[in-house]
């Protein structure tokens, strides 16, 4: 086997590991979305394992495609994912908070001010 | 902390950074860094900045490369560890994950620090910033999968350490002194309000 084909095998194997890991994390996010008890907990599932999941999938794609034009697009997708996911999570969380306070039965502690916090509609 | 009006030099620098970022995005979209792409990117950046001027950002700090590296490495580690934790929580049968809403007063109240800390917190599984008090620099964070007060306090200290790493990476000398101060006393250490509606 020539050194080139060895390198290709290594890269392909790494790509498979990344793609499978990323897919598993996305599956976990889906399961959590169904199973978690309230909206705020679900927001964790909807925004988080999927961030690393997507990054792993992108890394896997990059390792497999190996052309600069494709890789630059993947880098952009990753960067915008990191920039936008927190905003999405925050906006949904805040909207939920304005609607009603989190269920105290699910909380160990709740340190939001009694009037609903700085951005409450009052 | 109301920011002082920006000097002409600061505004020029902010604009230069914005142009550089926009040009790189443009080149990444086209897939190659050629002169044609850079010139095209400059034109697009000029139009974008003229049509959508950026809000002023005060940045008094100094970027420290080892600080940035340390922050990024620790961030990636946190991302992996907590992704696995939340994923494991999702597959645990017969378990309702408890959570908490905690108030964390940041030590440095600049807009930039509040933003960076919130974004870094939001990207790491297990925590979402659900509200921000800009005047006092307080983040209200929803934490997933905590079982008791001790874990809540550990998490709160973790957020202060995160802020420290961010300030070490991009903060000014004055801000570095602020984060080196001892942690504030946690605001509600006595009130465990589980089960009582407030």
Automatic annotation (TrEMBL), chain A:
<comment type="similarity">
    <text>Belongs to the CPA3 antiporters (TC 2.A.63) subunit G family.</text>
</comment>
<dbReference type="InterPro" id="IPR005133">
    <property type="entry name" value="PhaG_MnhG_YufB"/>
</dbReference>
<keyword id="KW-0812">Transmembrane</keyword>
<protein>
    <submittedName>
        <fullName>Multicomponent Na+:H+ antiporter subunit G</fullName>
    </submittedName>
</protein>
<feature type="transmembrane region" description="Helical">
    <location>
        <begin position="71"/>
        <end position="92"/>
    </location>
</feature>
<feature type="transmembrane region" description="Helical">
    <location>
        <begin position="14"/>
        <end position="34"/>
    </location>
</feature>
<dbReference type="GO" id="GO:0015385">
    <property type="term" value="F:sodium:proton antiporter activity"/>
</dbReference>
<keyword id="KW-0472">Membrane</keyword>
<keyword id="KW-1133">Transmembrane helix</keyword>
<feature type="region of interest" description="Disordered">
    <location>
        <begin position="102"/>
        <end position="122"/>
    </location>
</feature>
<dbReference type="Pfam" id="PF03334">
    <property type="entry name" value="PhaG_MnhG_YufB"/>
</dbReference>
<feature type="transmembrane region" description="Helical">
    <location>
        <begin position="46"/>
        <end position="65"/>
    </location>
</feature>
TrEMBL record, chain B:
<keyword id="KW-0472">Membrane</keyword>
<keyword id="KW-1133">Transmembrane helix</keyword>
<protein>
    <submittedName>
        <fullName>Multicomponent Na+:H+ antiporter subunit E</fullName>
    </submittedName>
</protein>
<dbReference type="GO" id="GO:0008324">
    <property type="term" value="F:monoatomic cation transmembrane transporter activity"/>
</dbReference>
<dbReference type="InterPro" id="IPR002758">
    <property type="entry name" value="Cation_antiport_E"/>
</dbReference>
<feature type="transmembrane region" description="Helical">
    <location>
        <begin position="39"/>
        <end position="59"/>
    </location>
</feature>
<dbReference type="Pfam" id="PF01899">
    <property type="entry name" value="MNHE"/>
</dbReference>
<keyword id="KW-1003">Cell membrane</keyword>
<feature type="transmembrane region" description="Helical">
    <location>
        <begin position="12"/>
        <end position="33"/>
    </location>
</feature>
<comment type="similarity">
    <text>Belongs to the CPA3 antiporters (TC 2.A.63) subunit E family.</text>
</comment>
<dbReference type="GO" id="GO:0005886">
    <property type="term" value="C:plasma membrane"/>
</dbReference>
<keyword id="KW-0812">Transmembrane</keyword>
